[in-house]
Structure formats: structure tokens, C-alpha cells
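User: I'm putting together a teaching handout on how sequence relates to shape, and I'd like one worked example. Could you take C3H1-type domain-containing protein from Mytilus edulis, show the sequence you're using, and then write out its predicted structure as C-alpha cells right after it?

Assistant: Happy to. First the sequence, then the C-alpha cells directly below it.
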Amino acid sequence: MLERNNSRLSGAQDESRICKYYNIGDCWRGDRCPYRHVEVTSDGVTLDQELVYGAVDEYYMEKILPEPGTWVAVEVTTVLNPGHFYVSLPFGKSAIDNLKEKEEIDKKDDWQMNFDQLISEMQEEYSKGSHNEDTTVDKAPGEIVAAKFTSDGKWYRARVLIVEENS
């Protein structure tokens, strides 16, 4: 429910402003019709739109925010509800396409080094035996775990697919 100028709106108000005769073929009022002559979409998408303004300084508009229509990577930092949330721009205003190409060139070696380091550290940590294989905590489907592969005896990241009950 939205209150504006002492009037209450509940959801989209398209139907009250769209000519019902135009949509079924012909409006007998023609150009004198006070209603909008637009086709109502079958998927129910509303034509009601409301401009949203934020308190943003002109400096930020030009220097920090991306150009309108640009696809950028964002990180959702807070969600109050589906219509009120906050995001940050972890890669600045760079377009996703440019970022992907640059990242693939610049970070390929770093990524491989970090991945190899992760695997090495996993082997070292889990080989110490500091974990408990006989835990009484049940695993859940979809849960991410570290699992020892019986063929090579190494530890890998894994996802639980099925949980079987022991009788």
C-alpha cells in the first residue's frame, strides 16, 4: 500500500487508465478517448512506472556510478525487502564484458596459484587428523564438505548428494 498526496494506491493502476474498447479491437471514441490506447500485455507486466531518486552527489554520478544501461558486477550488502536493498560495486564502474576479459588475462596465473595453494593446504590440514570422521552431526543434502577420495587418499571439496540412514 502506497500513500501519496492523501490518496491510496494498491498495486498497479493500469486498468483504470487503459481503454477497454481499444484492447478488444476498436474504440468508438477515437482520438477523443480520455483513456490510454495501449495493448495490455498477456503476461501481466504493468506499464506503471515510478522514478526513483537517491541522494547522490554529482561527483559520484560522474566518477563512480556506471553509465545508464551498462551491466556491472554488484555485491548485495543489505536487503531490507525486495524493493529496498543496498549494493556495492566491487569492481567499480567497469562493464562486465571488459572486466571479464581483463580478469582472464591478469588473474589467470593468480587464480591457479591460489587454487593450488588451497589444495595443498587442504591436504596438510586434513592429513593431521584434527577432524572427526565419526562425528555425530548429520550431514544434509547440498552441504559442502571435505571428503577423502578412497582411490588416491587425497582430500577434496565435495557436496553431499544423498544421506543414507544407518540401521
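A couple of points you could highlight for students: Residues 1-10 have pLDDT under 50 and may be disordered. Strands lie at 2-4, 7-9, 75-81, 84-88, 144-148, 155-159.
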